[in-house]
Amino acid sequence: MTHRHRVLAAVIGALVLVTGCSGAGNRGSTGGYVTANGAITQVDPADRQLAPILEGKDLDGKPFTSEAFAGKTLVVNVWGSWCPPCRKEAPALKLVSDEYADKNVQFVGILVRDDVASARAFNRKHDITYPSIDDYSNRNGLGFASSLPAQAIPTTWIIDSKGRVAVRIVSENLTASTLSGLIDDVQAGVA
User: Fold this and answer.
1) Lower CB count within 10 Å: N or C terminus of the chain?
2) What's the pLDDT band for 190 if we cut at 50, 70, 90?
3) Which domain CATH number covers 184?
4) How far apart are CA 98 and CA 107, in angstroms?
């Protein structure tokens, strides 16, 4: 894919995401977010594409790069404190991030369309300790456009230990057991 095509894909992806998140003209949206369709997409190991390197400032203003977690399974969640499904899935993300902390798994949030103060309050309320990138425009999320693009907020990806996109979850009802099972499958090389 040429640089021009990548830029065009990123612009189109941004327009789709921003338009979708506005809730205007979308029968499936409420409260300013696009209703997720509940889809879980698993990619066969032979067909996986490299995930983008996630970079930016964390919620404390410190530099962040996903390269620091090379060799780990990454669980990347696009979220905002304003998003009702994000609030609903926070306990499941917290539970699984704690359970898998010693299993070579790192959780990372991509905070979109939100301010840092609200995000910090959200994380304190839900006792979420894994890092999030302050990424108002979702530049990092758009990096998945060539593999499995975000279709709603929240979207969660599981990236295998080789840095490849293995799973995309677009669901308002993400449970700890579903997420744990998917991580287990990725680590076992099944999904």
Assistant:
1) N
2) low
3) 3.40.30.10
4) 10
